[in-house]
Amino acid sequence: MPQLIAMVEGVEVKHVYLHKDRTTLGRRPENDIVLDTLVVSGTHCTFDLVGVADVFLEDKGSTNGTYVNDHMVKSRTRLHDGDVIAIGPFRIKYLQASEQPSSFGETSAMTLESHAAAQPVNARFQVMTGSSAGLEVPVVKAVTTFGKPGVTVVSVSHRRTGYFVAHLAGSNVPTLNGRPIGDEPVQLADQDVLDLAGTQMKFLLRE
User: Fold this and answer.
1) Which terminus of the chain has a smaller tally of CB atoms within 10 A, N or C?
2) CATH top-level class for 3-95?
3) CA nearest 23: which of 52, 51, 56, 53?
């Protein structure tokens, strides 16, 4: 199944499997993929799934443009395995086919359909380092993964009692407020600082 892996400063912020005929991306909450930053237009672009694994990208007249491998998209463009899409500070890698993880189910796949619009966002991470400092990434799924594949990856789970972070993969041990995170979930509190291999993100909780 085709998938998109979105990163900011090398940190994975969204992982989306393309299973609909058309998937929309933009700043407005009604989009299938919501990137909440002003450099992204309300409806920025679309991904059309044709057949089993062919995906076509189309910019929808966005203000700041959509780029594939550093070339601006001017017409409907077929994506190829490994293509990198640039939208503002986001770098989105396109993978044409992969097996959807079965151990974590639909939640881990983070398809991001109408879930973001159906539930008010009250938790997010704010990037503190690099050129994207200040960018806020909403936590809208029951389980969300962040990190650098092959280096360090954490999972953030939303439970009835709050938000919890755990080290999921990678040899580099992430820290929370300077303390190492293990594979046992640790509850997050407002203003906690998560460090993923040098990239710092502040957790913001708004009740």
Assistant:
1) C
2) mainly beta
3) 56
